[in-house]
Design goal:
single chain, mainly alpha, Endonuclease Iii, domain 2, Endonuclease III, domain 1, 2 domains, 61% helix, 0% strand, elongated
């Protein structure tokens, strides 16, 4: 199977089985989405969704978050991973949005990367989910599933994976492909015990074809 054929098969299957994938993070606006994505780094969406209702009740706007102390933010997010760093990032994020962007989340990569707590993955999530742009955010699930399926070959970094996926998925498909690969990795193609028997992509999967070695 050629790379082009593999991408076509993967796209066809996901479009049939998951036509409208969505992030599992709960949010009401771009400020809430950015907050949730920053909190989700090395943490489950389930855990983030447990703490954000109280966080957004206390700080419903960017201005409210910017005016809060790091200690106040910490108390509401302390059950996530790395709460000290994330509390500082959220404070810095809100202050940057207020000082440089009128309290709004910017819609371009360069400005997003200037925000505390925002790396390339988070920026790509915002571009894709919040602004409907053709962007591929690569987390551990996307990185792993792409390599197993054969969408990438010997990729060493998330950026390398991002570039390969962006080059080979159709632009109008890229945003959905991000969610396809994340959700597939989260529930089927798991890190330790991939559920190949319940996967509809085995005929196109390099990992399966090689005997799951």
């Amino acid at each position: 199977m050629t790379q082009k054929e593999r991408y076509e098969r993967v796209t066809e299957w996901f479009e049939a089985t998951m036509p409208a994938p969505q992030t599992e993070l709960h949010f009401g606006d771009n400020y809430q989405l950015l907050t949730a994505v920053i909190l989700s780094a090395q943490c489950t969406d389930k855990r983030v969704n447990m703490i954000t209702p109280a966080l957004f009740e206390k700080f419903p706007t960017v201005a409210d978050m910017a005016a809060a102390s790091v200690e106040e933010i910490y108390e509401l997010i302390k059950s996530v991973s790395y709460p000290n760093n994330k509390a500082k990032s959220l404070k810095g994020m809100a202050m940057t949005l207020m000082e440089k962007h009128g309290g709004e989340v910017p819609g371009n990569m360069d400005e997003l990367l200037e925000i505390p707590g925002v790396g390339r993955k988070t920026a790509n999530v915002m571009l894709s989910v919040a602004f409907g742009q053709s962007a591929m955010a690569v987390d551990t699930h996307v990185f792993r599933v792409s390599e197993r399926l054969g969408l990438t070959t010997g990729s060493k970094t998330p950026l390398e994976t991002e570039k390969t996926l962006t080059r080979n998925f159709a632009p109008e498909t890229l945003g959905r492909a991000h969610h396809w690969l994340i959700l597939h990795g989260r529930y089927v193609c798991k890190a330790r015990r991939p559920d190949c028997l319940n996967c509809g992509l085995t005929e196109a999967c390099r990992y399966y074809q090689k005997g799951m070695k």
